[in-house]
Design goal:
The complex is a heterodimer of chains A (114) and B (110). Chain A is an all-beta fold and 114 residues long. Helices cover 0% and strands 51% of the residues of chain A. The mean pLDDT of chain A is 92. Chain B is 0% helix and 44% strand. Classes of the chains: A mainly beta (114), B mainly beta (110). At the A-B interface, strand 4 and strand 5 of A face strand 5, strand 6 and strand 10 of B.
């Protein structure tokens, strides 16, 4: 198993550009989520999904869209990038909604918006 | 609303000294609590969870509901323990959101 795979690892964008951060998992996990990690802020939840076709907002959803057409993939879209979205983005998955299930994280995508 | 507080951004200890990383939470029900660790240039990974009552890499954490705390402890710090540590909470059955604290960077001085 590759676990949770994120692409790209690094990206530089100009303000106003759009892009999609890819996330895929091969563990047949129902639950997937996106976090952003900023210095002094920890990890904040952007969006999450409890299964294919179902998504919901987390703590900081503004400026981001997600979709979950398959169990494996959970892409994160920035429609019009802003400098405030410069961050490290982590995708995570866990087997199901069970509270005690540990989350598996990807390696992260380091995104810079100029 | 649930909240996790890690009061120390940075904790420096000498090798062989005891370590305690503090975590306090705010939630009225019975939460599930976790410690995650991120070593340099590695992905975030689960260190331990309170329901397992386990010791991983010499670390333990006890849930104190009276003090709403879940401090992470190790009696003798090692250099390889240097990392970023995050305390996290899920509010219980049926909840999906894992709430993280802001993290504490542990630096073990040789």
């Amino acid at each position: 198993n590759a676990g949770v795979t994120q692409t790209p690892k690094f990206q530089v964008l100009k303000t106003g550009q759009s892009m999609t951060l890819q996330c895929a998992q091969d563990m047949n996990h129902e639950y997937m989520s996106w976090y952003r990690q900023d210095p002094g802020m920890g990890l904040r939840l952007i969006h999450y999904s409890v299964g294919a076709g179902i998504t919901d907002q987390g703590e900081v959803p503004n400026g981001y869209n997600v979709s979950r057409s398959t169990t494996e993939d959970f892409p994160l879209r920035l429609l019009s990038a802003a400098p405030s979205q410069t961050s490290v983005y982590f995708c995570a998955s866990r087997p199901d909604r069970g509270a005690s299930q540990p989350q598996h994280f990807g390696d992260g995508t380091r995104l810079s918006i100029l | 609303a649930q909240r996790v507080t890690q009061p120390e951004k940075l904790l420096s200890v000498f090798k062989g000294a005891p370590v305690e990383l503090k975590c306090n939470y705010s939630y009225s029900g019975s939460p599930e609590l976790f410690w995650y660790v991120q070593y340099s240039r590695q992905r975030l990974q689960l260190l331990l969870r309170h329901i397992s009552r386990e010791s991983i890499k010499g670390f333990t954490a006890d849930l104190n509901k009276g003090e709403t705390s879940f401090h992470l402890k190790k009696p003798f710090a090692q250099e390889e323990d240097s990392a970023m540590y995050y305390c996290a909470l899920i509010s219980g059955a049926g909840s999906y959101q894992l709430t993280f604290g802001k993290g504490t960077k542990l630096s073990v001085i040789p």
